[in-house]
What we know:
Layout: H1 2-14, H2 17-47, E1 50-55, H3 60-71, E2 75-78, H4 88-95, E3 99-103, H5 107-114, E4 120-125, H6 131-136, H7 140-156, H8 162-170, E5 174-180, E6 183-185, H9 189-200, H10 202-227, H11 230-235, H12 241-277, H13 284-301, H14 307-333, H15 338-344, H16 346-361, H17 369-377, H18 381-384, H19 386-391, H20 395-420, H21 424-427, H22 437-442
Parallel strand pairs: 1-2, 1-3, 4-5
Antiparallel strand pairs: 3-4, 5-6
Helix pairs in contact: 2-16, 3-7, 7-8, 10-12, 10-14, 10-15, 10-16, 14-20
Amino acid sequence: MKFFNLLKKELTELLNKQMVLGIVIMLVLFSIVGQVMQSSIDEISKNQYKINVMDCDDTDFTKSIFDDMKSMNADIKMIGKEFSGKEFQDIMKENDIESLVVIPEGFTKDLLENKNLSALTSVSVMKSASSVAMVSSDNSSALSLLQSVISDKLMKNGGFSEQDIALVQQSFKVSEITVVSDKSAEISMNTIIQNISVQNMIIPIIVFVLVMYTSQMIIGAISTEKIDKTLETLLSAPVSRGAVLGSKMLAAAIVALINAVSFMIGYYVLVGGAMTSAMPLDTVSSAVSDTIHYSNAMNQLGLHLEITDYFLVGIQTFLTIMISLSVSIILGAMANDAKSAQNLVMPVMMCAMIPYIISMVSDINTLPTVIKTLVYAIPFTHTFTAMNNLMFGNDRIFVFGIIYQAVVFAVCMFFAIRIFNSDKIFTSSLNLGQKSKLRKKAK
Length: 443
């Protein structure tokens, strides 16, 4: 019985109202993230069998191919040949499409007479570097279905042997074009996203680490000093409270920055070492040529950041850290004990985790308006999407993000200074109906 009484006592202390509220909030927020991801997946599923085709060959054979694909529940949209002389970016914009498969002129003749497939052209519109964007504009399922229908038709009606069909399939080539805004380049969108994701992934990770580290550090420091009366002694010393507040924030920011830089260096060493060890020696020359081609394509598409862009990202990251520090000071002042201080980290953690997860799997700018507004209302979101917005020309969203973060920081800092300059730093608490231990002691 003594054991169960002790167990009941420990559970009562651990499962307090603050912890239960935190769990409920976490479940609600994660359900929102799940709905966002589900809506993105549903949108992809709807477009999976939507195929946009420009038939420049326009023969009975190609028409029969598309009829067979329609019989397999493929939703085919035909783009007229009159667009064939235009730039791909203009074709995609005028027809409001994000993917296109172009059948070249002479396709049927080359196939039936020479048993060779002319190279098809696959065009994809790239609006972001998210994994959902890669899937939504991907033509791989359409090309696989097209290849399967052609092979089946040749075997049944073309008199081709299995060996002939194997030769035809071996000659199956696709020229991939990627369109970004009003520019296009001959490169696979998958190649771009794979390279960009490795580069852009480090910024959200660093921001997440910085926010979590600084918030835990400040909340822990403020709450500990408040509980053991060290803060009261410090603030009664002949030193301005603003200097005390500023030194705490600056110290936390410096330590967090050191950890972020160390993490970044380790990450690049890890990724670089893994890529180098996985590359055979005989592919080094081809890798160099691929790198040159990739670099030229990125410049052609305008997917590169200048020094000023990185400086702006740095400003936004700085504002994010300052917001987390000011909010953490307010939350730390409301802690009654070490346990409540741990629970008070959860609001900051959720505000950092939600945009971090969503930005990694989806393009926030393409979400429904209500959800997008709610996500962007979290100030940390703008830093997670900063590089993506700059790279893809969403300058208005980026500028609004800096202004919005500056306003949020000013408001949070105003309340933090108000609390620090008054006796509320010693008396305020977030006890959800429980009596404050500090007030009990004061009595």
